[in-house]
Amino acid sequence: MKILIVEDEKGLRENMLTYLSEEKNICESCTNLAAAISKLSLYSYDFVLLDIGLPDGEGFEVLRYLKDEMRTEAVIIISARNSLDDRIKGLNIGADDYLTKPFHLSELKARIVAVFRRKSTNSNNKVIFNEISIDLIERTVTINGTEIILTRKEFDMLLYFVANKGKVIAKTALAEHLWGDEMDMHDNFDFIYSHIKNLRKKILDVTSNDYLKSIYGIGYKFTDR
Amino acid sequence: MKLASHYNKVTIVVTLSVLIVGAVIYYFAINHIARTLLDDHLSEEVSEVIGYVNLKKELPKQVDFDEDQTTFALLKDQHVPTRFYDTLYNNPKLAGTRAGRAVEGTMALNDRLYRFNIIISKESTEYLLQIITTITLVLVLGLFLVLFLTNRYLLGDLWKPFYRILGQLKAFNVSEPVEFNRVESKIDEFAELDDAVYLMAKRVKGDYQNLKHFTDNASHEMLTPLAVITSKLDTFIQDETLRKEQFDQIQDIYSAAGKLSRLNQSLLLLVKIENDLITDTEESELQEVILEKLKQFQELLSSKEITVETALTVKKLKVSKYLIDILLNNLISNAIRHNYSNGHIKIILTGSHLVFENTGSAVTLDSTAIFNRFQKGSGSEGTGLGLAIVRNICKVYGWTIDYKFVDGFHSFEIGWNQTEIPQVLH
Fold this sequence. Notes:
The structure holds 2 protein chains of 2 kinds.
Chain A: E1 2-6, H1 10-20, E2 26-30, H2 33-42, E3 47-51, E4 53-54, E5 57-58, H3 60-68, E6 74-79, H4 84-93, E7 97-100, H5 105-119, E8 126-129, E9 132-135, E10 140-143, E11 146-148, H6 152-163, E12 168-170, H7 171-179, H8 190-206, E13 212-215, E14 219-222
Parallel strand pairs in A: 1-2, 1-3, 3-6, 6-7
Antiparallel strand pairs in A: 4-5, 8-9, 9-10, 10-11, 12-14, 13-14
Helix pairs in contact in A: 2-3, 5-6, 6-8
Chain B: H1 3-56, E1 69-74, E2 83-90, E3 97-109, E4 112-121, H2 123-158, H3 160-171, H4 188-236, H5 244-274, E5 282-285, H6 286-296, H7 298-303, E6 307-312, E7 316-319, H8 321-337, E8 344-349, E9 353-359, H9 386-397, E10 400-406, E11 409-415
Parallel strand pairs in B: 6-8
Antiparallel strand pairs in B: 1-4, 2-3, 3-4, 5-7, 8-9, 9-11, 10-11
Helix pairs in contact in B: 1-2, 3-4, 4-5, 5-9, 6-8, 8-9
């Protein structure tokens, strides 16, 4: 996947770049509107991660450019402004998702996977990890051809893990993803444990591979290594 | 009392007293002049009589001429001093007694002393006095009426600019974008007042806008560094060579960053609510929303083994879905957070109110302070803005919110007592 990151804040840009750069991903970055448009005019990407507040203008310009040129890049807006107006405006001009700062990199990754699958052709709306196959449309999971029944939370959790495979995911990030930060879970992670326990048990019922690892007190990692 | 009626009262009292005093003085002055004239006339008569007597050496015959009555009487030695006086006399030509002016005195004739007495009619001067009094009275009444009408209508008109400025001041709302309408006035004072008020309103609005932008910008500017912190941490924890203690430290930083971010969002939300920036409204059935919310909080409730009792009736509200969501979130998470394990929550919804009751600490909270910003219990992990947000949402829709502590239950009651949603000020 080729990803273009348009973000003027150096610290954030570099971390997004590192986190998203994996074996199959090629990431490039730029810091302003002009550079973004010139890059987009020269190359084509699968994904654009777009900050709205750029030093030389609003990121909406990039969206308009892509729309005018009938480009197919998927766009996720990253903005410090959590206003409904901006969100609607962005989605209307053709953005595929809207992420408010601050966000966890694992959340960004999960959104990218979700948007990418949604935009792909019908045959390709499955997220596959080894023997695990997740159907995003049907919201079903099959392992080695056997369907396992997951609750909504467990399904979302598994998808989140698979999207961030091989990465350590902070439990804060996981809690925010599953319950939203409005619910203000105030560092009570007890309820996450029970969901994790159930999910792991359901997976281990049909496969012998335990992919889900607990990382000290900080979070979890879904990996086959 | 209005200034105009005050002014009216004062002018009328002053005018009235000046006129009364003036009329009294006027009456006495005219009276005095008239009397002097009559007395002059009488003196002339006296000199005529004395002249006649000295010339003819006899008393004039008692003939009445010009309505004057002259009488003589022989005196026995006593001397009568000359004096003028008011009297009543019978005029033979006319019936009844008349008011008259008289003079009496002594005169000598042929070594004898006579008392003479001359009376003349006062009728014409009295008539004159009556006419003058009448005219004066009519004038006073006329003046009075004119003054009253001027004060009432002309002065009322004069004050119109003032009331227009006052009306605008009353309707002034710092957060509204409505411009202040200038009030034209030829009166310097009002023009000056209008200038001052206009400038003040402009300045206040400017300051307010600046402050609003500042809060807005400050909060937004804080979000990017927060995003940097979060993303650095997310990258940092990928290093699995870190020790458990280091992960614990990182977890604490995560918590602090998360709290800061929530705090920031709550502040931004408060600003938005206070400025009426959330205007979407739709009809929703509150009992449905509450049940849905409880489902969302199910894990949290069961992790603390809290039992929830609900008594919900159908209640339709026309509100912002977003705000009602936040309101319920805050109330429910408070009821859970400040509860103990195996505690209880009661939710009662009727046509007139919504009550959230929860068990918790045995201490009554300060019912006025808890709704203030950054007011929180010592053990609370929240932002301290939850109830402030709840109160502000209630204020937007004109609802009441009260706190009580009854039978071990902390109770928050929202009353929809208003008949209609009052003001979405626009």
